[in-house]
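[09:14] KT: can someone run the structure on this one? pasting the chain below
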Amino acid sequence: MEFTFIITIFLIGFIGSFISGMVGIGGSIIKYPMLLYIPAMLGFTAYTAHEVSGISAIQVFFATIGGVWAYRKGGYLNKTLIIYMGSAILIGSFIGGYGSQGMSEGQINVVYAVLATIAAVMMLIPKKGIDDIPLDQVTFNKWLAAGLAFIVGVAAGIVGAAGAFILVPIMLVVLKIPTRMTIATSLAITFISSIGATIGKITTGQVLLWPAVIMVVASLIASPLGAQFGKKVNTKILQFILAALIVATSIKIWLDILG
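[09:31] RB: done, structure tokens below
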């Protein structure tokens, strides 16, 4: 591997993981297109979609560990929410991942596009007063949270993503969880969700060892830095960054499908 290629992969992992730690998503929504297009644009070996999804799965697993570790103090992690949504999304993602083998690539892309569009619309809904709730007084409907997480898990399992890009809008808009608690808790739930995807990718031989190692190193450095930075940034700015990422992804997927 050329040194410039190593630096390129490291920077993709670093930038994606920094944003991941800051806004509370696994980061594949950012890193997937970067890994797919940037190495090829710079004249390096182009990765296939399977290779990119394999590298992304490993990277999301470690990026979320780094983000959760940075948020472990300060009361941002809602353990009840993690247990209910984490267990439901794990079951759902297993069912979705197993069932997706009978679906065409076009059908899978449509599921992803619909998910991203719903998430984009939800992020644009005004979220008044949620950040005024003290963290130790946050309440939510446990079975609604589990049910929604299960549905997200099935859809995320189908498309091979951890599902955080739609979990975050659900937690903000439907469950009314404060922004910083949503970011920290969604990282923990995404970590649980990514376990199945990571095991699946490794056992089926879809992971390229050295690019994955480089991305993991970048993740473990950048994700905690992003989380620390996110604690200092105004919550409205964090919501805007996340909304912009989700809307852009939604538009890109629909253009690919309709094109």
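[09:33] KT: thanks! The radius of gyration is 17 Å.
[09:34] RB: yep, looked fine to me
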